Amino acid sequence: MMLGLLLLQAALAAAPAPAWKLADRTNPAGVRSISASVVGNDGLSRFVVKCDVASEPIVSIQFIQPQPLGSGADKPVAVRFDGGPAFTYTWQFPGTGTYITDPEAITRLTSFLVKSKTVRVETTNGANFAVQANFVAPTSDAMVRQVLGVCGYTLGVVPPVPVKPAAEPAE
Known about the structure:
Immunoglobulin-like
């Protein structure tokens, strides 16, 4: 009996941390979506770095929860790396998760992500209750670089703002 408990305890202690996964898909309309993601230490939430290439490429960082966070106005989300100070940005809340697409925030968050061991996301749900989740950071920057590269980003470099063509003068 005691040996069985010791073996069970050793097996639990040796359980591997959740691994980051790369997903690269193209839908029937030809829109490519590539992401690097990891399941949270709770086994339910997810942290995602994603590039969607439609009419223009969009990079997002997403925090997805099994219980809806509630759709509504944008609000602050804090991200901590290795227990350090929070990087707080305003994220969008469409329902089950939240995401950010701001290029400066994406650059800063991904730069810290690939140099860290842990990630913690903190926010509130639609009822204003605290929601938080912990994740392992990727062991290498390769997947994050690949996702960013598909959308024309370089890890650690804020992309230039695209210049919109000037309207032609009316005659």
